[in-house]
């Protein structure tokens, strides 16, 4: 079957900045697909190219077999795009904004009002339809963005950081809605730098780093590949470094401990990667008690998508974001985006 999205060897540069170096992935019909990566990894650039808002330097992009580069108008009708920040006109009401959107998509006149009522109903926005959007909260505004993206009934919905800046309740409401949409057969591509968002929602995920896809798979498949469980141990709230190193050496002697690292940024706590076995935590505790070493806190967890990222790049997502923030010239980017490239 033709995939809903097919992207191959996509490359895009802005002057001397390479925004995406080599991006390839495909999305099957009915999937929720997540693009995960730190700020600056190239997520927005990838989806701007897919949504025909930006031209790649090279590569292939197809939506349901139609080339986004050769037939952008057709592709625009196949997909709905919900951008990260939307410049809603604050004096218009929700319904008025949706009418404007309907006109932009040249929807058949006789269908417009019916479709507006249907998307307002779907997103629980009936009581907000006649209120000015300037009075909306962040969560309600995001729901209206979603309504606008769905008005022309696209097969594919593309969302850039759909829950950034939302409170927990609104975030969960958006997640529930996206799941319902998948049930109805809509294919969804979303970008996120929230690990838990991608983990909770995505059937498959592509992990992006510095403009390249470093891995693609189901969240659990990717985590299994990294393997092992994690144990975080604090011997004291702030342990002296030499004591932490002593304990590290002892722990490394245990046969099921694959790796033990002293985390100086976290009060010299110890991060262990251990073989997945039920009594690993108990064995570590017994060994420490036997040696008279205190335990301030200890916890075991399965690997997360952050561990997948760490294993592939040697950095956590947070570290990568901090590093990327220092390299960006946001003013210049905004100017280029306004100029439409
Ligand atoms: N219009 C632009 N002009 C110049 N450089 C740009 C522009 N847009 C993006 N970049 C650069 O391309 C790289 C990828 O940016 P992109 O916005 O695609 O990343 P991202 O993963 O979506 O992050 P974010 O969520 O912060 O937007 C970054 O290094 C960024 O500085």
UniProtKB/TrEMBL annotation:
It comes from the Bacteria. Residues 5-235 form the ABC transporter domain. PROSITE patterns: ABC_TRANSPORTER_2. One of its GO terms (molecular function) is ATP binding. Keywords: ATP-binding, Nucleotide-binding, Transport. SMART domains: AAA (SM00382). Belongs to the ABC transporter superfamily. Drug exporter-1 (DrugE1) (TC 3.A.1.105) family. NCBIfam families: drrA. This is ABC transporter ATP-binding protein. It comes from Phormidium yuhuli AB48.
């Amino acid at each position: 079957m033709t995939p809903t999205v097919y992207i191959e060897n996509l490359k895009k540069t802005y002057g001397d900045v390479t925004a995406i170096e080599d991006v390839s992935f495909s999305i099957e019909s009915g999937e929720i697909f997540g693009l995960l990566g730190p700020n600056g990894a190239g997520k927005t650039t990838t989806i701007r190219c897919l949504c025909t808002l930006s031209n790649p330097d090279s590569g292939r992009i197809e939506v349901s077999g139609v080339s986004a580069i050769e037939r952008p108008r057709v592709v625009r009708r196949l997909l709905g795009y919900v951008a990260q920040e939307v410049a809603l006109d604050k004096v218009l009401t929700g319904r008025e904004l949706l009418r404007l959107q309907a006109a932009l998509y040249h929807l058949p006149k006789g269908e417009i009002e019916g479709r507006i009522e249907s998307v307002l109903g779907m997103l629980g926005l009936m009581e907000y339809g006649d209120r000015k959007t300037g009075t909306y909260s962040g969560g309600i505004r995001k729901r209206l963005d979603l309504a606008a993206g769905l008005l022309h009934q696209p097969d594919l919905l593309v969302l850039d950081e759909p829950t950034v800046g939302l409170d927990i309740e609104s975030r969960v409401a958006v997640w529930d809605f996206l799941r319902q949409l998948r049930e109805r057969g809509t294919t969804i591509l979303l970008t996120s730098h929230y690990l838990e968002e991608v983990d909770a929602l995505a059937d498959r995920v592509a992990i992006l780093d510095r403009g390249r896809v470093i891995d693609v798979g189901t969240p659990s498949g990717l985590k299994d590949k990294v393997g092992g469980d994690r144990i975080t141990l604090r011997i004291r709230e702030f342990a002296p470094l030499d004591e932490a190193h002593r304990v590290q050496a002892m722990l490394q002697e245990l046969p099921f401990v694959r790796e033990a690292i002293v985390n100086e940024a976290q009060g010299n706590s110890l991060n262990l990667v251990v073989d997945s076995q039920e009594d690993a935590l108990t064995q570590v505790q017994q060994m420490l008690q036997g040696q008279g070493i205190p335990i301030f806190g200890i916890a075991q967890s399965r690997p997360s998508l952050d561990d997948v990222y760490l294993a592939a790049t040697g950095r956590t997502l947070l570290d990568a974001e901090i590093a990327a923030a220092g390299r960006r010239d946001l003013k210049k980017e905004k100017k280029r985006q306004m100029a439409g490239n």
